[in-house]
What we know:
Blueprint (H helix, E strand, L loop, with lengths): L1 H21 L9 H33 L8 H27 L3 H36 L3 H14 L8 H14 L16 H12 L1
Amino acid sequence: MLEKLREEHRAIERLLRILQVAAGNMEGLRRPELVVRAVSLIQEYAEGYHQDLEENVIFPRLEKEGVPRHGGPLEVLQAEHRLAKRYAEDMQSYFEAWKTGDETSGQNLLETVQAYALLMRAHIGKEDMVVLPMIQHAFQGERANELDHALEKASHHQNPTFDLEEYHQLLAELEGEYGLTWGEEKEEPREITADRLAEEFLRRES
């Protein structure tokens, strides 16, 4: 099951990379409706399915193993889940305003897409390098089987309307639109620092 979580991370990263390329400049957003659909789908998948499994199955079990919910990695990851959701909501709002001719909202949309993609890529990195190894260390043998069963059972109840085939079809369409092949090297968009993301999160939480 942990391998499945890693595979889900790779699929999400594909879409995040598409979003970053699209948000590089105004000309890059050739079909903004596809980008907004991608954001909606990634939230449906990442928030409505993947993150629910983390927060309702994985994180509580790590707490029982002595990993604190507050003042540790779990608190950081959950804060990033909340910030990602707010970014996605903002992107939808900016897109609707941009369609009416509001150029400022168009620029805000591009910047928020960029910040969202950078946040989520860093978030996935934390999970790959910290959370998944912690799970692998803490749950072995029969306990690992029990965790796999709990994740499998929960996955059948999370977001039953999610269409994985649609998700991969959209990935292929967007990658074709922007001339991308998964794994190829591209120039990274302008940097948005961790300090800027933290400052934005604190502003939104206040």
